[in-house]
Amino acid sequence: MKEFNYKRATTLLAAVSCAWAFGSTAAAEPALPTIVQELVAPPGLPAPITRKSAARVVVNLTVEEVEKEIAPGTRYMFWTFGGTVPGKMIRVREGDTVELHLQNLASNKLPHNIDLHAVTGPGGGAAQTLIAPGNEATFTFKALASGLYVYHCATAPVGMHVANGMYGMILVEPKEGMTKVDREYYVMQGDFYTNGGYRAEGLQNFDMQKAVDEKPTYVLFNGADGALTGKSSLTANTGEKVRLYFGVGGPNLVSSFHVIGAIFDRVYGDGGSHVQQNVQTTLVPPGGSTIVEFVPKVPGNLTIVDHSLTRAFNKGAVGLLAVSGAPQPEIYSQGIKTPLPAVAGAPVKPVAPAVAVADAPLARGKAVFERICAACHLPDGTGVAGVFPPLAKSDFFQERPYEMAYIVMHGRSGELVVNGQHYNGVMPAQDLNDEDVAAVINYINVAMNDGKPVLTPAQVKDMRQIKTQ
Ligand SMILES: [Cu+2]
Predict the structure, then answer these.
(1) 61 alpha carbon to ligand 1 midpoint, in Å?
(2) CA-CA distances (angstroms) from residue 303 to 226, 262, 285, 289, 321?
(3) How far, in Å, from the CA of 112 to the mean position of ligand 1?
(4) Domain 34-324: CATH superfamily, name plus number
(5) CA of 315 to the centre of ligand 1 (A)
(6) In whole angstroms, what is the distance from residue 256 CA to residue 284 CA?
(7) Distance (Å, rounded) from C-alpha 132 to C-alpha 116?
């Protein structure tokens, strides 16, 4: 980023401020009431508009370069609009005049600007707003067309500014307003390129070559691995109408946007006015958006993914909508599983559970767990419903804890029921030595399942000799 052509930018800047001085004589629209936009951190957004006439909406947006967590234990220098990824959402009404104030904080290092796709005019405001740190740019535009629009920084190298998180959305409500819903959320997907691998620890730098090659290390919702899971999950009650304003900042990857366990009742394709009904997955390009509406009818976790699935399973593109309410067995039954009378091929003979395991090295198991297993099964072992089964309080695990060593060594795929929830995923085989396998199994059994240590490294060694099917 040191290579950034500062000279060129400042020359451009001079030209811009000159042109701007000439253009600024245009009088403000008369008699429009002025409203200051209330900015909210995602996944929140400004409240629906109840006004029935046009206004002059003042938006005070800051550009902030901030170091934050991109994944647990991994930090990254984000460039943001309003301190968040995505940038704070702007919400106006069709026909409004937007008076945008962009402040490039003095503590920042680089020039930035904003190009809003809701603007009609060359550059979408990019030239008017290009400013060095310690400056404010003001520019007005009329929101002529309703829709959900992406905005982003358009300062060279644009791909880098966008890759560092410089995007957000502006919703231009149609004159008649949006239909009423019970919950609204604001989610954007972006691809991130760090010089270290996925979840490599410490402060990571932007990797331009990976960006040019379009090989992201992370594909994320709302700028962080876990931004929409665990305590930060989105929530709803059964029977409520949920609307997601979803956009892709990119800079490169198209999203196959999907919510596992829901059918979108209505999709405003590409964030426009046309409504498509009963949609499973909708494609959203970088610099594009969609509005989806659905009513969760069954309680549980609905998993929000990019259905280009290795991004969800291996690069972080997973979010949750936690739905509360009474079970609805007529819509979604618990299901019944019964073993077939005679299974071809004798099952693997389990190694007898250890009678006494000498001093289990739980700390070692904890370290292995946090380094490897937590990525999928989550740091507290609770998993992701329907995607990654829980290891904590897992009936499947507790039934024969020592057998779980096979799963760690050889991986597992196919149908699986844990605590009544169905899974059908792929757990890759883990290349761990005997000590680590024993340690992690013992750790999970003791710390997460109220059990005892069940395996020694020697037993794991023996288990390796036994062939699995
Ligand atoms: Cu920028």
Answers:
(1) 13
(2) 12, 9, 20, 19, 6
(3) 4
(4) Cupredoxins -  blue copper proteins (2.60.40.420)
(5) 24
(6) 7
(7) 19
Rg of the chain taking only CA atoms, in angstroms: 26
Distance of CA 26 from the midpoint of ligand 1 (Å): 28
The alpha carbon of 167 and the centre of ligand 1 are apart by a number of angstroms equal to 9
pLDDT in tens, 5-56: 444 444 444 444 444 444 444 555 468 999 999 999 999 999 999 999 999 9
Ligand 1 mean position to 88 CA, how many Å?
Answer: 15
| Residue length of the chain | 469
221 vs 225: CA distance, rounded Å: 7
Rounded to the nearest angstrom, the distance between the alpha carbon of 79 and the centre of ligand 1 is 7
Q: What is the pLDDT of residues 310-365, one digit of tens each?
A: 999 999 999 999 999 999 999 999 888 888 886 555 555 444 444 444 455 788 99
| Alpha carbon of 161 to ligand 1 centroid (Å) | 5
The reported pLDDT for the residue numbered 14 is 42
Domain boundaries, the chain: 34-324, 351-463
Please tell me the pTM assigned to this model: 0.67
Q: Residue 26 has what pLDDT?
A: 52
Share of the chain above pLDDT 90, in %: 74
* Alpha carbon of 162 to ligand 1 centroid (Å): 7
Mean pLDDT of the chain: 90
Distance (Å) from CA 258 to ligand 1 centroid: 29
CATH of domain 351-463: 1.10.760.10
Helix (H, G, I), strand (E, B) or coil at 152: strand
Distance 74 CA to ligand 1 centre (A): 22
